[in-house]
């Protein structure tokens, strides 16, 4: 089985619609794909409709990637704060097969989404102060109906010729955590995220925990604390983890009793990763499904 548990659609910051994502996952030969848009379940209905018409046997796992911030002391040589003075480290928590109607978790997702537009506007303002001829209208056009985020601002920088690629925009010079044009948004405490997802019957996996090029990462001691609080797993096989990092994370997962997943973090044409570039072991996937009580995977049909 080929199982990809981390993808994005136009419901957040991907370039494939949810229907296109499902069709492309089937065309890529995947057996299971998880739709994990940022802080939203807005793509579920369209993805499920497309799955019914797909006739490939693809299974859809519903999920989300939750924006979190962990309050930690700064690492050596790092301030531990952004330019806006907010303490802590941003991290993303993948949540799978939770009840999307559970009210407390739904309320927190809404708070994060509501803060996305003011945050993106603030980044545009900072970029204009730095001499970039970006406009809010340009970013809004790129985001379309999706939940606006940094990748949309980064795409605008590519359009303007300021950087060569979306990845090149995620540097301290521009949009990286604490970068010159970075702005804060409402984020969940990761311990609260674990509690809320569990209460909604879901399973939690810490996304790309040692993606150093994205900025400061949480210390391993904090991952141990998250594991003790009920974290189910960590994403190991990811494009932002080199081989030594993956080996280090596998050892940590074994020590802490955490599941290990692999995923593409697919964003369509916005990033270079391909669907199924990294995958999750079928036994791990089976354990995720076994632990979940909020929702079931949605099976496709076979001709």
Explain this structure.
With 303 residues, the protein is α/β, with parallel strands linked by helices. Helix content is 37%, strand content 15%. Strands 1, 2, 3, 4, 5, 6, 7 and 8 form an eight-stranded mixed beta sheet that branches. Helix 1 (18-27) runs parallel beside helix 2 (44-54). The radius of gyration is 18 Å and the shape is globular. The relative contact order is 0.19. The model is unreliable at 74-86 (pLDDT under 50).
Entry summary:
The chain has 303 residues and is α/β, with parallel strands linked by helices.
Task: Name a few traits of the molecule.
303 residues, alpha/beta, 8-stranded mixed sheet, 8 strands, 37% helix, 15% strand, globular
Secondary structure layout:
Blueprint lengths: L2 E5 L10 H10 L4 E4 L8 H11 L4 E12 L18 E8 L6 H12 L1 H14 L6 H8 L6 H10 L6 H4 L20 H10 L3 E4 L13 H9 L4 E5 L5 H14 L2 E4 L19 H10 L6 E2 L4
Helix pairs in contact: 1-2, 5-6
Structural class: alpha/beta
Distance between the termini: 19 Å
- Tally of separate helices: 11
Order of helices and strands: EHEHEEHHHHHHEHEHEHE
- Helical residue percent band: 25-40%
Task: Provide the β-strand percentage band.
Answer: 5-15%
- Main β-sheet, in a few words? 8 strands, mixed
Shape descriptor: globular
Gyration radius (Cα, Å) is: 18 Å
User: How many strand units?
Assistant: 8
List the uncertain runs: 74-86
Oligomer: single chain
Mean of all residue-level pLDDT scores: 92
